[in-house]
Design brief:
With 117 residues, the protein is an all-beta fold. It has no helices and eleven strands. The chain has strands at 2-7, 10-13, 18-26, 33-39, 46-52, 57-59, 67-72, 77-82, 91-98, 105-107, 111-116. The model has no long low-confidence stretch (mean pLDDT 95).
Length: 117
């Protein structure tokens, strides 16, 4: 079993910044992919960014240049630095950990990010 606990969400004005954290505990394999996804009201969950345990990153096009994903493997923690936030970034942000091609995939409970105009 794996537990993921997100933190760092909140209310911020447009143009501001937030840093999300997600700490994983339990059975953590040395190779995994950790990621951030988000879901706005009435919309499907969408990819924000992912990072492998080796440090390879991927981003959704709309987040490139504004968001930065990073991780601390020693702490099994993934971070999401969000800059130049826009009202359309308002959503619940979820972190996950997975091993692609396997049934090993776990999600956090989500953290609300609200960007006011």
């Amino acid at each position: 079993q794996v537990q993921l606990v997100e933190s760092g969400g909140g209310l911020v004005q447009a143009g501001g910044s937030l840093r999300l954290s997600c700490a994983a505990s339990g059975i953590i394999f040395s190779y995994n992919v950790m990621g951030w996804y988000r879901q706005a009201n009435g919309k499907q969950r969408e990819l924000v960014a992912t990072i492998t345990s080796g440090g390879r990153t991927t981003y959704a096009d709309s987040m490139k240049g504004r968001f930065t994903i990073s991780r601390d493997n020693a702490k099994n923690t993934v971070y999401l630095q969000m800059n130049s936030l826009k009202p359309e970034d308002t959503a619940v942000y979820y972190c996950n950990v997975e091993r692609p091609g396997t049934s090993y995939i776990y999600w956090g409970q989500g953290t609300q990010v609200t960007v006011s105009s």
